[in-house]
Amino acid sequence: MATLFKKPSIKMVALTGAFVLCVFVGIGLWVKNIATKDLLVQKIEESINSEVSIGGVEVSIFNFPAKVVISDVSLMPKGGKVPAEAPVKIGEISLSIGWLGLFQKHIDVKHIGIKEADIKITYYKDGTTSLEKLFQSPDEADGKVQESSQKKQGGFNIHEQGDFVASLGGLSISNSSLNLVLEEMGLQLECKDLHVELSSIQIDSNDLAASNEAKLKAKSLIRVYSEKREHYGDLYLDGLSSVSLFNVTTGEIEAEVDGVFSLSDESWLSTNMPFISRSWDQLSVLKKVGLNVGKAPERASFGRSKSISAHYHLGRIDITKPLSIWVEDWEVAVLGGGWLNTHTDQHDVRGELLASKKTSAVMAPTIFKGLELLPKELRASVADDVNKNLFRDERLLVKIKSTGDFSDPKIRPDGKIIDLSKATKGAAGELLKQKAGSLLEGLLK
Description:
Elements: H1 8-34, H2 37-47, E1 50-60, E2 66-77, E3 88-97, E4 106-123, H3 138-141, H4 147-150, E5 165-168, E6 171-182, E7 187-198, E8 201-204, E9 213-226, E10 231-246, E11 253-263, E12 268-270, H5 274-281, E13 299-302, E14 307-313, E15 316-319, E16 323-327, E17 330-334, E18 339-341, E19 346-355, H6 357-370, H7 376-390, E20 391-392, E21 395-405, E22 410-413, H8 420-444
Parallel strand pairs: 4-5, 4-6
Antiparallel strand pairs: 1-2, 2-3, 3-4, 5-8, 6-7, 7-9, 9-10, 10-11, 10-12, 11-14, 12-13, 13-16, 14-15, 15-18, 16-17, 17-19, 18-19, 19-21, 20-21, 21-22
């Protein structure tokens, strides 16, 4: 055995290995000593405008990869009255890190896990949020930052990170909740049982266009309330989307999401929601053809696709495929191409109110019976107009459009509805003129 170490190469390998082991153990003990709860709280509070509380910190530097677990984290506003419940609470944050990559300017995060988070956010009418002040730098909060430099300190910018490459093996959020208050829209969204999984991604600041997209799975129960706490519905969402994390041009964090989210059979909406109730009111135009639809039931369900297909960017939601909502035997179909801005409350949506084939078959005879009041020579053309504007695939149809504030929508018909009563009177008047004209012509002769 001793003769083996007489060979210089083997001896060098052994000495190098021993040295690396000593360095690794030394770094491990050093990290364990400095990564304390108090020091972590101090460093975080020096960088953001929040009072920070941490229950515990565990560092396992000898694991491969290294692991850091931070438990019972909460962020609260500095100074003033501390809220009864912190706006940000997290039960556990775990990070698995391949620290050797730092020597190659490569941040290698194997995984980030967040458990039992409870976050509350208010989007104010002026466009700001309740969390912005929490994450301001202390200098910004004290007004010490010059106006010209405020933009530079507004957040993380990938273009300012030099040659660093960041690898994220995945991110998961489990058993969490997110409460959103949208002041401009007058809505409160309570996201319960939130589960999120972000796929692995490698971000290269020098080639952001090709390294900016990840896949995102999300599942949650979203309870929708009015500002007066009227329960507007429950949405059980589960879907997959693609996410771009950064603005390629500016380098700022600017999430853009494009996804399809399925809705379970338990999902429902209240017909007291202004958009649904005012859409239903548009069915009163059917009185022109002799129909009275009546009052809407209390609840609406989701039909046909039972999914929401949408694109989200900077507060704007674009509807990429029709969304189907059923109110008993009537379908409110929100057509693709419409949009809603959650920051400004503005929207522009085209929709259709369609009766089921069964209901349409019952109502159609009433409509066409009214055509019998018309002169025979006009019935065919009016019947063609009725079929063209009021029916599609044997279903009774009313087109609508909705614009303005989503919380106070302006909804009106978006098509031609023939008034049979007026048409009958008009036809009778024309016929009388023709008869009188013929009589007068005969008398003159």
